[in-house]
Amino acid sequence: MADTRTPRPTARKSSRRARKTSTALSIGAAVLTVGAGLAAWLARRQIAAWVAPGSAEHDAPDLALDQPRPAAGDRAPVDFRPDIGAPMSPAEREALRPAPGPAG
Q1: What is the pLDDT of residue 56?
Q2: How many CB atoms lie within 10 A of CB 81?
Q3: Distance (Å, rounded) from C-alpha 10 to C-alpha 17?
Q4: Along the 104 residues of the chain, how does pLDDT read in single tens digits?
Q5: Residue 70 DSSP label
Q6: What range does the domain containing 29 cover?
Q7: Does a structural domain hold residue 71?
Q8: 79, 58 contact by CB (below 8 A)
Q9: Quick one: which H or E segment has residue 58?
C-alpha cells in the first residue's frame, strides 16, 4: 500500500514562528506603552506639585549656630500655627495630663 499522505508545507512552520515573534513584540510594545504612560503620569504630578501656587511648603529655618535667631515677629506660616481657641476633647486632655508618679 502506498503512502497517500501529503507532506506538511514548510511555510506553516515559519508562519508559527512569525506568529510567536509577532505576539512577543505586541506584548513588549504594550508593556512599554503602559510603563511610559505611568512614568508620564508620575512626572506630571511631580511637576504640578513643584509649580502649584499657594502650596503649604515653606523654607525650613537654617539652625546653624552662626545664623541669626528668629525674632519675635518671625512667625510660622498660618497653616502651621496652633489654634488657641480650638476646643479640646476629654480624650486629648487626658492624653496631655502629666503622669501620676515616677516612671519605671
Answers
A1: 56
A2: 9
A3: 11
A4: 566 777 666 555 567 777 788 888 899 999 999 999 988 888 888 877 776 666 556 667 778 888 887 777 777 777 778 888 889 899 999 998 888 888 76
A5: P
A6: 13-50
A7: no
A8: no
A9: none
CA-CA distance, 40 to 47, in Å (whole number)?
10
* Contact of 49 with 55, CB cutoff 8 Å: yes
How far apart (Å, rounded) are the C-alpha atoms in residues 42 and 21?
Answer: 32
Structurally, the chain folds into a number of domains equal to 1
Nearest to 21 by CA among 65, 32, 13: 13
Q: Within a domain: residue 5?
A: no
Q: Which residues contact 77 (CB under 8 A, 6 or more apart)?
A: 56, 58
Q: Are 70 and 61 in contact (CB under 8 A)?
A: yes
59 in a domain, yes or no? no
Tell me if 44 is assigned to some domain: yes
